[in-house]
Automatic annotation (TrEMBL):
It comes from Natribacillus halophilus. NCBIfam families: Na_transp. CDD domains: SLC6sbd_Tyt1-Like. This is Neurotransmitter:Na+ symporter, NSS family. Its main location: membrane. GO terms for cellular component: membrane. It holds the Pfam family SNF.
């Protein structure tokens, strides 16, 4: 049973939105959209987010608040017989692996942020931004120190607990993130030639849709809402019983869509305005955006703002990924064990991330199934573990929990009626599992 709760509804929503938004929306979505056809990918992503994503987010909210337990114990309390807690263990492993490479990107952000303070990013020698990215990411000491700094920042917040740590940080970071984004969107849209980037991002070319596009969009929808790893089960376990779950879920989803929309409007207009390529992959914001900002008046200042924004977004997601691993290990002994376990978990995640961090330098020639370790871990988590976790969670909640408990938990504090419950339950029981299985089969 959770012994700590969110101080306020807005604190929970901002923390949950922070977990959802993070790098999944600000870093990963633009580069995946750039490689998967732009508007077609974004349209499918939105459809999946509003349908399957919203249903699954509510599913995790219902399970977490009903049991008041995090990963592992939530499943065990509903179904004591059997090995259903393995779903929670899968979520913890997925979160651990996800943060192991995610924190590497957080380290890159810190490295670029530090360099931009000295004016070294938007004005590299010979104007070669790809070479600058390679120089930074191949330097094991620079990215290693930045990676460690990112994990220490994450640990220092999570060790303070839900109210004093995660909620307090999210209440300050999330509004700041929106303000910074608004400033950058305005600047990006006023560039000459920006409209071509807007068209690429928002006008769908349906001929570009493939099985890969569907899988990437599905994985991105789950990634963007932190679904499939029981993060939202853990966060909602700290909710009071009077909270309106549908309203909270839609608040998180709408904030996620807003940030996804703004991220595209910051990045793609600049990419096309300066005749750059949108399909750079994971390096997009580190090789293309410095080139864009380098051509602008006060470009260094705008790039610095963007890196601060990225750091805020990355940290709010990292908090949730550490919390899901720590919470089951300390449940019932929070005050005694939280600090120690947070440091142990955080440093283990850092150690697991070292091969990903060296994938662009010392281990660049070491490949796993034909690709560098960083890319393979990203693919494993985003396209296999997250959809698999989402599939298992949807089946578990919709079939193993009693229908009366589901209805009571979903509708408590809400003005919605039985029809809303029936649509949600049908979606979670049938549509979500079928959609995930069909997408997997389409790749075989």
């Amino acid at each position: 049973m959770a012994t700590e709760h969110w101080r306020s509804r807005i604190g929970f929503i901002l923390a949950a939105a922070g977990s959802a938004i993070g790098l999944g929306t600000v870093w990963r979505l633009p580069y995946v959209a750039g490689t998967e056809g732009g508007g077609a990918f974004f349209l499918i992503f939105l459809v999946l987010l509003l349908t399957l994503g919203s249903a699954l987010l509510l599913t995790e909210f219902v399970l977490g608040r009903h049991t008041q337990e995090g990963a592992i114990r939530a499943y065990k309390s509903v179904a004591p017989k059997g090995q259903w807690q393995l779903i929670g263990i899968l979520g913890m492993v997925s979160a651990f692996l996800l943060l192991s490479f995610y924190s590497v990107v957080g380290g890159w952000i810190i490295a670029f942020l530090v360099r931009s303070l000295g004016g070294q990013v938007t004005s590299p020698p010979d104007g070669d931004y790809t070479a600058l990215f390679a120089a930074i990411t191949s330097n094991p000491w620079e990215v290693g120190a930045a990676h460690l700094a990112f994990m220490v920042m994450t640990i220092l917040v999570v060790q303070q607990g839900i109210r004093k740590g995660i909620e307090k940080a999210s209440v300050y970071m999330m509004p700041a993130l929106f303000i910074l984004f608004a400033v950058l969107v305005v600047r990006s849209l006023t560039l000459d030639g920006a409209w071509e980037g807007v068209v690429f991002f928002l006008q769908p070319d349906l001929s570009a849709i493939s099985g890969s596009t569907l899988l990437e969009a599905l994985g991105q929808a789950f990634f963007s809402l932190s679904l499939g790893v029981s993060v939202m089960v853990t966060y909602s376990s700290y909710l009071g019983k009077s909270e309106n779950l549908p309203r909270s879920a839609w608040s998180v989803i709408l904030l996620t869509i807003l940030i996804a929309f703004m991220a595209g409007l910051v990045i793609f207009p600049g990419v096309f305005a300066f005749d750059l390529q949108p399909d750079e992959g994971p390096e997009l914001i580190f090789t293309v955006l410095p080139a864009v900002f380098g051509e602008l008046a006060f470009g260094e200042m705008f790039f610095l703002l963007f890196m601060i924004l990225m750091l805020f977004a990355t940290l709010t997601s990292a908090f949730s990924l550490v919390e899901i691993v720590v919470a089951p290990l300390i449940r019932g002994k929070e005050k005694k064990n939280r600090v120690k376990m947070t440091w142990i978990v955080g440093l283990l995640i850092f150690a697991m991330g070292i091969p990903s961090n060296l994938s662009f330098g010392l281990l660049a020639d070491w490949t796993v199934f034909g690709d560098i370790f960083f890319n393979q871990i990203d693919y494993l988590v985003s396209n296999i573990l997250l959809p698999t976790g989402a599939l298992l969670i949807s089946l578990f909640v919709s079939w193993k929990m009693r229908k009366v408990d589901l209805r009571e938990e979903l509708l408590r504090g809400s003005q919605r009626g039985p029809m809303f419950f029936n649509i949600w339950l049908f979606t979670v029981r049938y549509i979500v599992p079928i959609a995930i299985v069909v997408v997997f089969i389409s790749l075989i």
